[in-house]
Amino acid sequence: MSTDNLLTTLNLTCPIVQAPMAGGATTPKLIAAVSNFGGLGSLGAGMTAPDTINEQINQIKALTDKPFAVNLMVLSAAESTTFDTSMPDWLSGYYQKASIEPVLADKPAQLFDEQFQVLLDNPVAVASFTFGIISQAQVDVLHAVGTKVVGTANHPLEAKAWADIGADAVCVQGAEAGGHRGGWLAQSEQDPMGLLVLISQTKAITDVPLIAAGGIMTADAIKAVQTAGAALAQMGTVFLTTTESGISATYKSELLKVANGQRDGRTRLTRLFSGKQARGLVNDYLEQFAAYDNTSLPAYPQLNAMTKPMRAAAAQASNPEYMSLWAGQGVSQVQALSVHELMTQLTGV
Amino acid sequence: MSTDNLLTTLNLTCPIVQAPMAGGATTPKLIAAVSNFGGLGSLGAGMTAPDTINEQINQIKALTDKPFAVNLMVLSAAESTTFDTSMPDWLSGYYQKASIEPVLADKPAQLFDEQFQVLLDNPVAVASFTFGIISQAQVDVLHAVGTKVVGTANHPLEAKAWADIGADAVCVQGAEAGGHRGGWLAQSEQDPMGLLVLISQTKAITDVPLIAAGGIMTADAIKAVQTAGAALAQMGTVFLTTTESGISATYKSELLKVANGQRDGRTRLTRLFSGKQARGLVNDYLEQFAAYDNTSLPAYPQLNAMTKPMRAAAAQASNPEYMSLWAGQGVSQVQALSVHELMTQLTGV
């Protein structure tokens, strides 16, 4: 029976994990600010080249001596290196109409094994994983370099699988959560569980310490998930609008518009951007191609790579309607604050 | 600023509301057992004829002198009395293939005004409402006969609307909840909010006391929603498998099979049974006609009346695959217990 949790073993002074958000949101400054406050900052490194991950780890270490996490996306070498399917017609049609040349990267995603090696060469306090599960041997080598291991689950069986290979904690991510869902079993996609249900059913089958994620925006919500049985609360969307966040001005502005009542805060779980379920603000792209969301789409990371030229062109043009505006259901409660101001509010310090 | 809540004004001794579940689940015995324990039992009377509602109220009053609630579905006279659309082809085709004569009732639903009159003639402690909102005048006449008024909301704006007309409390029903969703705004259907998010965003715009519903199955979950800011926890699915529940043996058996790992516990929000979003166990009917779920379907109560002959025939044949097996996402935690045993467990008495 595990009785400790990351709060105690890492000497965190507040029960807040800043969610790893790949794509540039989680700057070294953001992560260090969270960890220096006493929470656990996390680098969303899943889409980052190994050398850059190493550099960013060094940058964070220069800004804080407190523990922080690095998050990777578990993908096979085959998934990451080969375009094994062609672009859907509706997407080719979009590129043609928008006069954008869909130049694809040389490979759909970074190589997981190379990213993982960085964590062995330049160890961090916590390594967390999404999109799949690693092997027991990989957990063991991380433990051997002094790194705690955190898995991600959208379903109790995924949490159990992580517990069974010795994960130190599991992030249970409810359907409310923004961005990509971290699970991999079919059950995760077919009936996305609300956070409270997920905590309750996970506790019924494993005693691994839980980090609760999904729609948590306030001090009361943090206390609520702790009461439900989670050790820590993981929050993503609420950090996107902080001063230290690395998202584009366009993206940040759309999130704050929701909070100000200037934009519809409706979110949707969609596979249209990447091939894998993720929650974001409904925009023109999601509305225009909604009919294709439940069709057979190229899987992650294939479709993600295929929509990248579109997203890049939209970002370049400051056009939020063809960018991925990842956000959780709690988005209407974002605020423009520094990390210190936000965490002071969340912890009632 | 309202500071009291139903817990104090009704002298409840435990923070549990047994959800109103129309269709026979909420027997007078079940309701009285909940209220006698110190919670708030609720009669799901939305689909019941006025005379029968009156009789059932008398039966409950004979079994308990404690407060209980009666729940009605807010429908217009036009919606309730006229079949204004024809049966979808796929459903006609099903009836033909199954050799079932789809004999429709003389009207799609009971008349709300006649049901409402019963609550004035034979007053109860609490009147609760789903599917729509009543008028301020109707709230006033209920108050005049000593009845507290509870609305149902799936979206913060619906809760606000109930608060604005003087409701004494609002049941905020998260996406996790089984059975029909009680809201009526387009936002409720487009982005069904998880319970914690719904509580948090509702508290941000109104101080009306909240009853939290959706996936709550355990003592810890009750405490969690109270920590999040709800006054009471409303639970439905967990009462369906009690000894006092009035659901069919077939339905009860399928729910318990999920808890025993003998049936997939996957649920789905679907409009295929009634025209209005409701959550139930995935069965052959939902799989077979899944492609029609997001098409233009006859609205509630039209489609509900049209699928009734199918559901009745399936119930007659003890065939769960063409019955509506309403259940929340917490369904895997149901137990075969008496109400007294269940509530003892939930309250730690």
CATH class of chain A, anyone? Answer: Alpha Beta
Query: What does the average pLDDT of chain A come to?
Result: 96
Question: What portion of the residues of chain A fall into strands of 2 or more residues?
Answer: 5-15%
Distance between the termini of chain A: 32 Å
CATH level-four homologous superfamily name of chain A? Aldolase class I
Oligomeric nature of the chains: homodimer
- In CATH terms, what is the architecture of chain A? Alpha-Beta Barrel
Largest sheet geometry of chain A: 8 strands, parallel
Largest interface: A-B, 39 and 39 residues
- Tally of DSSP β-strands of chain A: 11
Helical content band of chain A: 25-40%
Secondary-structure element series of chain A:
HEHEHEHHHEHEHEEHHEHEHHEEHHH
How would you portray this structure in words?
Two copies of one chain form a homodimer. With 349 residues, chain A is an alpha/beta fold. Chain A has one domain (6-347): TIM Barrel, CATH 3.20.20. Chain A is built from 16 helices and eleven strands. In chain A, the strands form two sheets. Chain A has an eight-stranded parallel sheet. Chain A has a three-stranded antiparallel sheet with strand order 7-11-10, with no helix packed on it. In chain A, helix 8 links the parallel strand 5 and strand 6. The model of chain A has no long low-confidence stretch (mean pLDDT 96). The A-B interface holds A 174-176, 187, 190-191, 193-197, 199-201, 203-204, 214-218, 220-221, 223-229, 266-268, 282, 328-330, 332-333 and B 174-176, 187, 190-191, 193-197, 199-201, 203-204, 214-218, 220-221, 223-229, 266-268, 282, 328-330, 332-333.
